[in-house]
Amino acid sequence: MSRRVQVSTLIVGGTAAYGLDVTRWQPQAPPFCLDTPFGPSPAITLLRPWPQAPAVAFCSRHGQDALKHSAAFLNPRALVWAAHMLGVRNILSWNGVGAISNQLAVGDLLVPHDLLDWTHARVASFGRERLTTATSPSFAPAARTAILAAIHDIKQVSGENIHAQGHYICTEGPRLETKAEIELFHQLGADVVGMTLVPELFLAQELKIGYASLCYITNFATGRASGRKQKRQFGPAVAHTCLPILLRAAQKLPRGPKPGTSAT
Amino acid sequence: MPHLLILAQPVPPRSLEVLGPLIDEQTVSTPFGAVGPLARRGPVWVLPYFGAPTRTDPRATLWAAKSLGVQRIIAIEGMVGLAHSLTRGDIVLPTDYIDWTKHQPTTFFEKLGAGYISQNPPFCPDISAAIHQHLPAARPVIYLGGEGPRHETAAEARMFLQWGAQVRGLNLVPETYLAKELELCFAAIGLIAAHGADRERARGKGALQQAIRQVLEALPAILADLPQPLTCGCNHLQDSARERGVIPTNWRDWQ
Question: Residue A241 is inside which H or E element, if any?
Fold first, then answer.
């Protein structure tokens, strides 16, 4: 691939990204994989969301064409290292989540501001030899603000509820959670449950890449429908809602190479 | 074809003569190691003394069950009573669980984008209903599945209680959700053998022996009452994944 295209943002697609046809967002070249010290990255496509817009990198976390691997069997180090090789400043991710909080319904959008790590079998660091400083995990405020502003731009006429903050709990999976576990997570303060933000957030921070997530409520967590209809949404609507928001958010973020890194 | 497996942890193997005479013994090789010998008594396979401390790969146990044509699994486990109202010799029926294992396999589907299986209900409703009917004293409890083989500390026992668990054990998690992946029915009978580490030691061997006898006496009636055909749906848990082509048709290709 040509590295002459400068990208400042990588969008990582979650639920339904694997089925997405990205041609309407003007791919600049065929998808490519980067070789990283941790193996090949997922396929990355450079998109130009509208004429004159700067290119944005996009990849589907779970694979292309189909959900090929569940969260615990991905290679997040290769993914985040590839972002580093591209010199991106921010990673914007979308994540399908189950609603724990009673304030949330299927189809709602939530931009989490904090996270609980309930995984136990994932490599969650690039390792001491590459680590410059231990980080205190947090979503990047500028990237969160950009996502919220982009939601506001795009969604003001539609009915979905927007939640400007929330606690995300990450489970090991791939099984879904029991009712007893969800009640425990509720007690611990979690609003939504997913399987993918750990360790991507931690790894991005180790490389000083900003990271923020747009959570799409795909279902009610076990036992949390509380009389509401057991609606679920894992289909293309998730990707068709999330990608335009994140592409717009990317345009609101700083451009140019990440300070202190070379693009090669 | 025998259709049921009993994982009998605290039960002396000879006492299982209640199920019928020993008519076969087999060790089953699986991609996760050998399992057995399993004893066949009447229509039932029995695997005595599974689990901690030299914990068998739980995938091997379930793969072996599936290979033998088993559809239903009843685990009988000695458990720790975390709830202060539970004491040695009490019989319990786990109705939900919290997974606190750390180094156990989480799925058969490490190479396929599958395994997103609902845990509602957490245990097979057909088997649980039969247990409830024939062991009415069995208290419904939430089960904390620990990593082991060590016991919990007193601080952990209090934490687990605060989390909503009433008992702690080492043999149902991840077995129950791995069983679901293979579309097997799985439910359990618990025998309280010890108290949580924050409580005084449980006393009285006799109470536990008495409880084991009670469970053994109820077993034939529990087995006789299991609905045929199944009404629980456990055997259809992968229908959707199969129909969408996410997993191969033959379960032997699922790992």
Answer: helix A236-251
* Cβ contact, residue pair B102, A184, below 8 Å: no
Q: What is the ipTM of this complex?
A: 0.94
Both structure tokens of B103: 């180094």
* Alpha helix ranges (H) inside B55-166: 58-67, 125-134, 154-162
Over residues A204-253, the pLDDT tens digits come to 999 999 999 999 999 999 999 988 887 899 999 999 999 999 999 999 99
Contact between residue A189 and residue A167 where contact means Cβ atoms under 8 Å apart: yes
Strand partners, B192: B79
Given an 8 Å threshold on Cβ–Cβ distance, is A67 in contact with B111?
A: no
- Write the CATH number for B183: 3.40.50.1580
Q: Which residues contact B26 (CB under 8 A, 6 or more apart)?
A: B36, B37, B38, B40, B68
Radius of gyration from C-alpha coordinates of chain A = 17
Distance from CA of B169 to the nearest CA of A (A): 16
pLDDT tens digit string along A14-66?
A: 999 999 999 889 888 899 999 999 999 999 999 998 888 889 999 999 998 88
Q: Which residue of A has its CA nearest to B103?
A: A121
Domain count, chain B: 1
Distance between CA A122 and CA A174 in Å, rounded?
Answer: 13
Tell me if chain A has a CB within 8 Å of the CB of B142. yes
B180 interface with A at CB cutoff 8 Å: yes
Q: Which residue of A has its CA nearest to B177?
A: A175
pTM assigned to the model: 0.94
Sign of the dihedral defined by the CA atoms of residues B169, B171, B173, B179, in that order:
negative
Range of the domain at B9: 4-253
Tokens of A236: 């293309």
Quick one: tokens of A23? 């041609």
User: In the numeric block, which tokens belong to residue B120?
Assistant: 């509602």
B102–A contact, CB cutoff 8 A: yes
Say which of B98, B110, B118 has its CB closest to residue A176: B118
Q: Does B39 touch chain A (CB under 8 A)?
A: no
Task: Give the tokens for residue A137.
Answer: 């995990």
Largest CA distance in chain A: 54
Beta strand segments in B204-245, E:
none
**A·B CB contacts under 8 A:** 85
For B217-228, b where at least 16 C-beta lie within 10 A, e where not — what string?
A: ebbeebbeebee
**Domain limits, chain A:** 9-251
State how far the Cα of B253 lies from the Cα of B201, in Å rounded to an integer: 47
Q: Which fold has domain A9-251?
A: Rossmann fold (3.40.50)
